[in-house]
Every structure is written in C-alpha cells, then in structure tokens.
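Please decode residue identities from the backbone states below.
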C-alpha cells in the first residue's frame, strides 16, 4: 500500500536506470482521466500533457480565425500553426500570445466543434507527431482517447479510465456551472452519449481501451482511491 503523500518509492521505481518512461491514460469525456493524470504527474514528478487540449486549441483557433470547421483543408492549416511552446507541461495550462486561454478551451462553442475536428486524419497525424516528440524527451503522463492504442502503443504503463454516462454528465454539469454556462443536465448527458458514439465509431483512432490497459471505473470510486489504484499498480508491477 502506498501511503497518501509519500511517493519516494514510486519515484525511485520510475526513475530507475534514468530511462525515459511514459504513462498513458485514456478514457471518454468527463471520466476523470485528466484530473487523475495531472495529479499523478505531480506525485511522481513527471511532466503532463492533456492531448485533448491540443484538439481544443485547434478548435478554438479555428473559431477566432473564423474558419469553417467542415473545411478539412482549412482546419489542417490551422493545426499546422500549433506551437508546442503554447503547452505548459508542468501545470497543464495553454497559452496563446502570452495569455492563459485554458478556460476558453472548455467553452461550449469549443465543445461543439472539437469532435468534428478530431475526426480529420490529417489533423490527427500532425498532433500525434507533436505528442510523440514530447514523449520521447520527457518522463510523461499523457492523457487522451487514443494514447495507449495509437500515440504511445509501447507506453510503460497504460490505464483506461471510465464511468457511466450519468456520472460523467454530472461532472461536466458541475464544471460548466463553475464557468457560469447555462445548460441543462439532460442536454449535457445527450451530448456525452453522442460524443461517446462519435469517438468510438470514427475510422481513425477510435476510442477503445488498449488490450494491455488497466481499466478503472470511477463511477463509485472517489478521486483519492482512483489515484491510489493507479499508483499501487505501478509499484506492484516493479516488485
């Protein structure tokens, strides 16, 4: 058992032989994967990348540049302008022209556009190349929807975080309420179900657990116990 707040053993395990190690965490929208991944990275002193913010960043830029999201070529051109320096690998924030735009990437207008953009294979290729380059140079916790299956199929540890749609809708509703976004719980639930269908049915990099991923259902597990499950597995694999 790893005692909360004491992770020296785990840090020693992960830094052994001074080899770059990567941890992939995948899962559907509002499953808790991003919060878990960010907290895990802090406890084990790893860098952190939420790849979903890359797609949201492209979606956000396409909005402010007034680019038609149905025009794949135009969206690809927007994605080519993405700069890795915009992504802070320590605190998970995203900056544009020296301004923190992380909260803007979670706005409803971005929500409505990001799934369509993520379906474009050429956009995915550009962003995946960036993601792999970051992983080669950093001990990294990488969060997304296709990390363990496509981006980092040889990741040292793979996790798939899930929860039932109703639980996830409640989480998203709470997040949007904090942003003072007016939307009903029923609408959020419907959007989550539609997003699940879009992500799991797309031809390029569908949302599915990697064969060798550890699946953790957070529907009835609180945040701290979810973190401990991940950390205990990593420690147990090394003993």
């Amino acid at each position: 058992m790893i005692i909360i707040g004491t992770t020296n053993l785990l840090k020693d395990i992960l830094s052994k032989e001074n080899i770059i190690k990567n941890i992939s965490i995948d899962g559907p929208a509002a499953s808790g994967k991003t919060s878990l991944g960010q907290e895990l990275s802090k406890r084990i002193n790893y860098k952190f990348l939420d790849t979903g913010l890359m797609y949201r960043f492209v979606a956000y830029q396409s909005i402010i540049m007034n680019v038609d999201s149905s025009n794949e070529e135009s969206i690809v051109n927007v994605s080519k302008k993405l700069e890795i320096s915009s992504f802070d690998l320590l605190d998970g924030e995203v900056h544009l022209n020296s301004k923190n735009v992380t909260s803007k990437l979670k706005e409803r207008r971005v929500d409505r556009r990001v799934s369509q953009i993520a379906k474009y294979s050429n956009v995915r290729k550009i962003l995946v190349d960036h993601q792999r380059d970051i992983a080669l140079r950093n001990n990294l916790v990488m969060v997304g929807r296709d990390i363990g299956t496509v981006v980092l199929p040889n990741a040292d540890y793979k996790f798939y975080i899930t929860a039932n749609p109703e639980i996830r809708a409640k989480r998203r509703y709470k997040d949007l309420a904090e942003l003072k976004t007016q939307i009903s719980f029923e609408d959020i639930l419907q959007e989550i179900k539609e997003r699940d269908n879009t992500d799991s049915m797309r031809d390029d990099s569908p949302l599915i657990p990697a064969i060798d991923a550890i699946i953790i259902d957070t529907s009835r597990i609180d945040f701290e116990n979810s973190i401990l499950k991940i950390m205990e597995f990593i420690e147990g694999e090394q003993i």
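Observation: The longest helix spans residues 121-137.
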